[in-house]
Input
Amino acid sequence: MLIIKRPQTDPYFNIAAEEYLLKQMDEDCFMVWQNEPSIIVGKHQNTLAEINYSFAKENNIPVVRRITGGGTVFHDLGNLNFTFISSGEKGKLVNFKKFTQPIIEVLNQMGIPARFEGKNDLRVNGLKISGNAEHVYKNKVLHHGTLLFSADLNFLKQAIKSVPERFQDKAVQSVRSKVANITDFIESDISIITLNEKIKNHIKANNTETSEYSFTVKDIAGINNLVKEKYSTWQWNFGYSPAYMFETKLHLYKETIPVEIFVKNGFIENIKIQDNKPINIDFLKKLVIGEHHVYNSLELLFFRHSDYLKENGVNVKHLVDFMF
Output
């Protein structure tokens, strides 16, 4: 097993690195790594339905889709992530308890009564400290999990504070749980670096023929290529979301009008007024149908047609926010 050294903290690079290792590395791998503040959504989720978009935008928080299923999580430097990439027999690869057991053992040795609970969580006294997800590729499985150590939980709550009832789709929805930091259960003064080392040492002690590995120039080039082509793109992080309809309200002609916006493959397909009000929004349909449902693009579009919109009684800034 390769114990991969992971000093990188860029979320686009780190999420891409997992796919690269899963598909390009023959040996089994393990790594512990950290991300700068970022929101990581599950493969089958509707990104906009899972995150606080305005908060993420205002705080320049990257939003990255991963290749595993499950729910949305928030990462920062107070959170440790661990990843196993393991070969095995097809049909027997998915095993959440197997891959979380070494982590539980380390935490238990530290006096933390962590347990595997539910489908894929590690909890202490009923509070979630770790969520886990997996992805199968041929005869290999990627298992990764979070470990909330000293994360900014208030920031976390704001970043993933969503309003899912506004959306209608067939996406996987996150199950929100009460969370806690590992530091809440530690009496002694221990750093996240120490926990990182304890986990890696435990993996080394319980696996034969382990060796440390650092990314080569070729590896880094391959990962960066994945970042460029996939993980930093709007098409993957937002456009990959399942088709959805979401409800919003348009302020027009001194009225507040309930509106439904329909999006498929990241493109706006239609806009409908919910009520039977005699208000014509063809001017808006003319502008946005067929456009990407992405903030910056629509903002530029609306400002290019600001005079036209003002003639129809619309505030441009409100219109951009209304679309999200």
